[in-house]
Amino acid sequence: MCKYFMKYLAAFTPNSAMVQLYKDVVCDTYNDTTGIFQNDKRRLVKEITEQNSRLAKSRELLLVDAIDAKEYKNIKVESEKKITLLEAKLSEIGEQISYELDVKSLVEKALENLKNLSLLYREGDIEAKQFIIGSIFPEKFVFNGE
Protein backbone atom coordinates (compact mmCIF):
# COMPACT_ATOMS: atom_id res chain seq x y z
CA MET A 1 0.00 0.00 0.00
CA CYS A 2 2.63 2.51 1.04
CA LYS A 3 4.63 1.94 -2.14
CA TYR A 4 1.57 2.67 -4.29
CA PHE A 5 0.67 5.74 -2.30
CA MET A 6 4.23 7.07 -2.55
CA LYS A 7 4.06 6.56 -6.32
CA TYR A 8 0.73 8.44 -6.33
CA LEU A 9 2.30 11.33 -4.40
CA ALA A 10 5.16 11.47 -6.89
CA ALA A 11 2.58 12.26 -9.59
CA PHE A 12 2.06 15.67 -7.92
CA THR A 13 5.67 16.66 -8.54
CA PRO A 14 5.59 19.56 -11.00
CA ASN A 15 7.37 19.19 -14.30
CA SER A 16 10.62 21.17 -13.91
CA ALA A 17 10.12 22.75 -17.33
CA MET A 18 6.73 24.12 -16.19
CA VAL A 19 7.76 25.49 -12.77
CA GLN A 20 8.58 28.98 -14.05
CA LEU A 21 5.33 29.07 -16.03
CA TYR A 22 3.35 28.16 -12.89
CA LYS A 23 5.08 30.95 -10.95
CA ASP A 24 4.46 33.51 -13.70
CA VAL A 25 0.78 32.63 -14.09
CA VAL A 26 0.02 32.80 -10.36
CA CYS A 27 1.98 36.04 -9.86
CA ASP A 28 0.39 37.68 -12.93
CA THR A 29 -3.09 36.67 -11.78
CA TYR A 30 -2.45 38.08 -8.31
CA ASN A 31 -1.04 41.32 -9.74
CA ASP A 32 -4.07 41.68 -12.04
CA THR A 33 -6.37 41.29 -9.06
CA THR A 34 -4.56 43.89 -6.97
CA GLY A 35 -4.54 46.18 -10.03
CA ILE A 36 -8.32 46.00 -10.06
CA PHE A 37 -8.35 47.09 -6.40
CA GLN A 38 -6.09 50.04 -7.24
CA ASN A 39 -8.42 51.11 -10.08
CA ASP A 40 -11.44 50.85 -7.77
CA LYS A 41 -9.62 52.93 -5.16
CA ARG A 42 -8.86 55.68 -7.72
CA ARG A 43 -12.48 55.67 -8.89
CA LEU A 44 -13.82 55.97 -5.35
CA VAL A 45 -11.42 58.82 -4.48
CA LYS A 46 -12.58 60.63 -7.64
CA GLU A 47 -16.24 60.16 -6.69
CA ILE A 48 -15.62 61.43 -3.16
CA THR A 49 -13.85 64.49 -4.59
CA GLU A 50 -16.78 65.12 -6.93
CA GLN A 51 -19.25 64.93 -4.04
CA ASN A 52 -17.14 67.33 -1.97
CA SER A 53 -16.99 69.71 -4.95
CA ARG A 54 -20.75 69.48 -5.36
CA LEU A 55 -21.18 70.31 -1.69
CA ALA A 56 -18.81 73.29 -1.92
CA LYS A 57 -20.58 74.56 -5.05
CA SER A 58 -23.98 74.32 -3.39
CA ARG A 59 -22.59 76.24 -0.39
CA GLU A 60 -21.48 79.02 -2.76
CA LEU A 61 -24.90 79.06 -4.42
CA LEU A 62 -26.50 79.41 -0.99
CA LEU A 63 -24.22 82.34 -0.17
CA VAL A 64 -25.21 84.23 -3.34
CA ASP A 65 -28.89 83.39 -2.82
CA ALA A 66 -29.09 81.22 -5.97
CA ILE A 67 -30.66 78.44 -3.88
CA ASP A 68 -32.53 78.55 -0.59
CA ALA A 69 -31.51 76.89 2.69
CA LYS A 70 -33.90 73.96 2.19
CA GLU A 71 -32.37 73.07 -1.20
CA TYR A 72 -28.87 73.41 0.26
CA LYS A 73 -29.77 71.13 3.17
CA ASN A 74 -31.15 68.49 0.76
CA ILE A 75 -27.98 68.63 -1.36
CA LYS A 76 -25.81 68.48 1.76
CA VAL A 77 -27.62 65.45 3.23
CA GLU A 78 -27.52 63.60 -0.10
CA SER A 79 -23.84 64.37 -0.68
CA GLU A 80 -22.79 63.45 2.85
CA LYS A 81 -24.69 60.18 2.59
CA LYS A 82 -22.91 59.32 -0.67
CA ILE A 83 -19.55 60.36 0.77
CA THR A 84 -20.06 58.12 3.80
CA LEU A 85 -20.89 55.13 1.59
CA LEU A 86 -17.95 55.80 -0.73
CA GLU A 87 -15.55 56.19 2.22
CA ALA A 88 -16.74 52.85 3.64
CA LYS A 89 -16.07 51.16 0.30
CA LEU A 90 -12.69 52.89 0.10
CA SER A 91 -11.80 51.67 3.58
CA GLU A 92 -12.75 48.11 2.63
CA ILE A 93 -10.59 48.23 -0.49
CA GLY A 94 -7.76 49.76 1.53
CA GLU A 95 -7.86 46.78 3.88
CA GLN A 96 -7.72 44.37 0.97
CA ILE A 97 -4.78 46.21 -0.60
CA SER A 98 -2.90 46.52 2.69
CA TYR A 99 -2.97 42.75 3.09
CA GLU A 100 -0.12 42.44 0.66
CA LEU A 101 1.38 39.04 0.15
CA ASP A 102 4.77 38.12 -1.09
CA VAL A 103 3.11 35.92 -3.69
CA LYS A 104 6.32 35.00 -5.45
CA SER A 105 7.87 33.47 -2.34
CA LEU A 106 4.60 31.72 -1.45
CA VAL A 107 4.42 30.17 -4.92
CA GLU A 108 8.06 29.11 -4.73
CA LYS A 109 7.47 27.53 -1.32
CA ALA A 110 4.36 25.72 -2.58
CA LEU A 111 6.20 24.37 -5.63
CA GLU A 112 9.11 23.29 -3.43
CA ASN A 113 6.67 21.44 -1.18
CA LEU A 114 5.13 19.73 -4.22
CA LYS A 115 8.58 18.70 -5.43
CA ASN A 116 9.27 17.14 -2.04
CA LEU A 117 5.78 15.83 -1.30
CA SER A 118 6.83 12.19 -1.11
CA LEU A 119 9.70 13.05 1.23
CA LEU A 120 7.50 15.30 3.37
CA TYR A 121 4.98 12.46 3.68
CA ARG A 122 7.56 9.78 4.39
CA GLU A 123 9.38 11.81 7.06
CA GLY A 124 6.35 13.58 8.50
CA ASP A 125 4.63 12.77 11.76
CA ILE A 126 1.04 11.55 11.82
CA GLU A 127 -0.36 15.11 11.70
CA ALA A 128 1.75 15.98 8.64
CA LYS A 129 0.59 12.80 6.92
CA GLN A 130 -3.05 13.56 7.75
CA PHE A 131 -2.62 17.10 6.45
CA ILE A 132 -1.13 15.91 3.15
CA ILE A 133 -3.81 13.27 2.66
CA GLY A 134 -6.55 15.73 3.63
CA SER A 135 -5.28 18.33 1.15
CA ILE A 136 -5.31 15.79 -1.67
CA PHE A 137 -8.57 14.11 -0.68
CA PRO A 138 -10.83 16.75 0.93
CA GLU A 139 -13.65 14.21 1.26
CA LYS A 140 -13.43 11.47 3.85
CA PHE A 141 -10.63 9.05 2.97
CA VAL A 142 -11.34 5.42 3.92
CA PHE A 143 -8.84 2.58 3.53
CA ASN A 144 -10.64 -0.61 2.58
CA GLY A 145 -7.62 -2.92 2.90
CA GLU A 146 -6.67 -3.07 -0.77
Describe this structure in words.
The model has no long low-confidence stretch (mean pLDDT 85). The protein has two domains: 18-100; 102-140, no CATH class. The protein has helices at residues 2-10, 19-63, 69-98, 103-115, 117-123, 126-136. Helix 2 (19-63) packs antiparallel against helix 4 (103-115). The protein is mainly alpha-helical and 146 residues long. The N and C termini lie close together (7 Å). The radius of gyration is 28 Å and the shape is elongated.
List keywords for this structure.
6 helices; 2 domains; 146 residues; mainly alpha
Summarize the topology:
Elements: H1 2-10, H2 19-63, H3 69-98, H4 103-115, H5 117-123, H6 126-136
Overall pLDDT score: 85
Number of domains: 2
Distance between the termini: 7 Å
- In total, the number of strands is 0
- How do the SSEs run, as a string of H and E? HHHHHH
The backbone outline, from C-alpha atoms, is: elongated
**Unreliable stretches:** none
Q: Give a short account of the largest sheet.
A: none
Provide the gyration radius in Å: 28 Å
How many individual helices?
Answer: 6
Structural class: mainly alpha
Percent of residues in β-strands = under 5%
